[in-house]
Amino acid sequence: MNEFSLPATNYDVIEKVIMSYSNQKKPVTNEDIAQISGLPEHQVSRNNKFLVENGLIEGGKTKSVTDIGSRLGRALQHGKSDIVSDILKEIISANESLSELITYVRLQKNLDKDKFADHILYCSGQATNQYSKAGAKCIVDIFFSSGILEENEGTLKVLSSKEREEKMEISNEEKKTIDLSQAQVNEVAIKEADNIDPKRVIYNPNPSISINIQLHLPESNDPEIYNNIFSALRRNLIDGKE
After folding, report:
1. InterPro entries from the entry (predicted)?
2. b/e code 157-174 from CB counts within 10 Å (16+ = b)
3. Would you give the end-to-end CA distance of the chain in angstroms?
4. For the ranges 18-22, 101-105, 109-113, 228-232, which has the lowest average pLDDT?
5. Domains of the chain, each with CATH number or no CATH
6. Is the model more confident about 62 or about 203?
7. Taking the mean position of all CA atoms in its chain, how far away is CA 175?
């Protein structure tokens, strides 16, 4: 197997870089993509060699997205997992080294994700560091996203074309079910909102009543006058007697 380039980041970052390139109509610099993607410039530049080697971008100091890179970026932006899977399979098939890695998995038994990542790093010929280790794991995730590879109880398996199609059909059916369930929830919410009477008055079934009484007492130095007034109030308001 010939040496090959690795990404220098995880798969999520690679996706962001590809999507950022796919939106550009003219050649751009690493700084441009960093600003567009919100990523540090070094994360962009460290991934360029891998993207160029696999035909996703092209150019020198300034780079442009290729047709396949543009298609992949659009599919990623719109969440078209089936299209993403097909394009990634196309990229893997065109790269002899990546194709050989799939053959290696097919011939192994009880190969787990970490051991496969170590094998990818070894075969790449790259120095062992944090970037190459992340890149090797990113390659494994690319194989997963392509639908070529799956992990079952810790063991990796290469799926046949028929198995990939069946898995994709199941995935699409599950997505349809989720979309239908959400549509039903939205329909119920709309109906409930329509049944609300905007003129309905919300009231308290046990209202409380407060009575404020203001007294204007006559000016007098005779205490008997005040005594008579308060006695009358007590009889009429409190005792209820005439």
Report:
1. WH_DNA-bd_sf (IPR036390)
2. bbeeeeebeeeeeeeeee
3. 114
4. 228-232
5. 11-158 (1.10.10.10)
6. 62
7. 15
Q: Phi, psi at residue 162, to the nearest 5°?
A: -65, -45
Give the pLDDT band (50/70/90) at residue 95.
very high
Tell me what the mean pLDDT of segment 85-99 comes to: 97
Tell me which H or E stretch contains 99: helix 96-107
Biggest alpha carbon distance in the chain?
120
Query: Residues 178-197: what's their mean pLDDT?
Result: 65
CA dist., res. 72 & res. 80, Å (int): 9
The whole-number pLDDT of residue 226 equals 66
CB proximity list for 28: less than 8 A, separation 6 or greater? 21, 36, 62, 63, 64
Q: What is d(CA 11, CA 173) in angstroms, rounded to the nearest whole number?
A: 26
Q: Is 149 within 8 Å of 158 (Cβ atoms)? A: yes
Distant-in-sequence, close-in-space partners of 77: CB < 8 Å, separation ≥ 6: 19, 22
Helix axes 81-94, 161-194, angle to 10 degrees: 160
- Cα 135 to Cα 141: distance, rounded to the nearest angstrom: 10
* DSSP structure string for 194-226: HT--TTPPP--SS----------PPP-S-HHHH
Check residue 90 and report its DSSP letter: H
Rounded Cα distance, 2 and 143, in Å:
19
Q: How many CA atoms lie within 13 A of 204 on its CB side?
A: 4
